[in-house]
Amino acid sequence: MTKPDLIPTEREPRLLGSNRSALVPPMAVARWLIILILLACVYFFHGFLVPVLAALIIGFASWPVYRRVLGAVGGNRTLAASLMIAVIVLFILIPILMALSYATNEAQQLIRWGVATNANGAAAPDWFATLPFVSEWATEQWDLYVGRPGALGQYVAYIGGANVYNIYQTVLAAGGSFLDLALNLLFMLIALLFVYRDGANLSGQLDRFGERILPTRWQRLSRVVPATISSTVTGMTIIAIGEGIVLGIAYALAGAPSPVLLGVITGVAAMIPGGAPLSFTLVSIYLVASGSIIPGIALFVWGSVELFIVDKTLRPKLVGGPIKLPFLPTFFGLIGGVKTMGFVGLFIGPVLMALFVSMWREWVHDLDQSDDEGGAGLAVPPEVEDLRDARIDEPQKEHA
User: Fold this and answer.
1) I want to staple 345 with a disulfide (CB 3.0 to 4.6 A). Which of 3, 29, 38, 341 is the partner?
2) Is the pLDDT of residue 83 over 90?
3) Confidence at 196, pLDDT banded by 50, 70, 90
4) Which of 105-114, 191-200, 283-292 is predicted least confidently?
């Protein structure tokens, strides 16, 4: 007796696959897991983005100095990083905070004068009568918008409209954000310490990842970024701070009111092309109009000479490479950076705009090279090529 033949029956496919086959390819799982981890890090640590960006910018800009300090201490990275942090705190951060404190006090005095003038009114300054051609007009405008009680408040209300209360609340919030600023500075210094100490290793690891992602472009792009940041910070920030300090001292010697506040305003304006000349020119005009003719002329001459020396000697030596920002990207970088990130955005905004401009120039350079090589690397459809040849031949036929 033979065993009955077994008839094979078809099995229904399992929803989760067989025991030996994966439901999702392992590489896809790994990639999605990496993306989810990165998104989670961005979500949980986005509050530290501004201090970390500020630390990276300062680290890029001061990296050549750090290399010299590292060589002087025998290659001890922790000691070199600590010395760099100490130098930055003692000679850069503390003087800037002191200048901002003095500027804030002078601004408060100006606000108190505005409140008193709005309550009681104020007569036009005596030097208005000495202004050529516009003395009567200037006096009338002063009496209309400033002189009588309540006029200044009406003018501010006319400018601000319904947003006066919001502006007032914004000013109060800015005054009460000192603790937030202190915490951001502390986090920035901590991040900067690790940027100095572990920056070389991190740069090598980023180069390995970058070569996998952009094998033909990474070397050039990765070298453009630090050069751009260094040039931007050196050319716009350090020189602007120097001009603010030098011209602020000149304001004090010339007898200008609120010299520290004017120096801070000049330093910020110096980041914009033409901002520093406009600042000391307006102060010089004020001094001459108020009767201090010789100090006003001396201030204008000194500012012109100082600006000429900086632009012709110091700036070309400190700012290396072809990184030169036009006026419009610089202006948008400053305004957008301050609006988005506050005081730190004053430095981050121009850097981001400089990176954008440098990438744009790289793209235009590639397009120029493609044009010089006869369109190599550009995929042109055959029908477009035939149409272009026909358009080239048509003028020759008409000429014949």
Assistant:
1) 341
2) yes
3) very high
4) 105-114
Give the residue-averaged pLDDT of 150-170: 59
Is the alpha carbon torsion for 98, 101, 106, 109 positive or negative? negative
Average pLDDT, integer, range 164-170: 51
Instruction: Please state the three-class secondary structure of the chain as a single string.
Output: CCCCCCCCCCCCCCCCCCCCCCCCCHHHHHHHHHHHHHHHHHHHHHHHHHHHHHHHHHHHHCHHHHHHHHHHCCCCHHHHHHHHHHHHHHHHHHHHHHHHHHHHHHHHHHHHHHHHHHHHCCCCCHHHHHCCCCHHHHHHHHHHHHHCCCHHHHHHHHHHHHHHHHHHHHHHHHHCCHHHHHHHHHHHHHHHHHHHHHHHHHHHHHHHHHHHHCCCCHHHHHHHHHHHHHHHHHHHHHHHHHHHHHHHHHHHHHCCCCHHHHHHHHHHHCCCCCHHHHHHHHHHHHHHHCCCHHHHHHHHHHHHHHHHHHHHHHHHHHCCCCCCCCHHHHHHHHHHHHHHHCCCHHHHHHHHHHHHHHHHHHHHHHHHHHHHCCCCCCCCCHHHHHHHHHHHHHHHHHHC
Let me know: does 365 contact 235? Beta carbons within 8 Å. no
Global pTM reads 0.64
- Rounded CA separation 7/9 (Å): 6
